[in-house]
Request: fold
Amino acid sequence: MVARRGGRKRLPEKVKELKGTARKDRRPSGPGPDGQKPVMVGSVSRRAQEIMDRLMGCVDDLDYLDSHHADVYLLAAVRLEQVEKHYDFLKKNGYTYTNVSRYGGKTIKPRPEATMLNQALRHAHSLLAEIGLTPNAMSRIMRSSSTDPDADNPWKDI
Reply:
């Protein structure tokens, strides 16, 4: 595979086929999605397994589930579990804490967990976009899968 530098991420072949922009001469030589459920690798919590099963169900509904992408689904599930844990902690303990200096001055500071939650949210969103489960990615797939592109065009007869 050729190393890429910068620019946009490459669209999955399934998305290109649905949009009608797929070209045989530009297809990668590797196999397409095999439609098989990925096997859980490593030991993760029960909650991460539940999240991974939910993600794979969503991807299976879109017909591009691939057993070779188990690590991406697992990473997304673990990251979403971390989002839940950080959110629960902050809901219980608040987003700030008070720090008392040695001279008696009080300073209100944001909790480190708030920063960790923000990072986990950004990374989880990036992973969901990579899988194709964000509203933007799904709307692109749904728009491109319509059979008649002029069905909703009021100007088609002109």
User: Anything to note?
Assistant: The mean pLDDT is 81. The chain is about 50% helix and 5% strand. The beta strands are 96-100, 106-110.
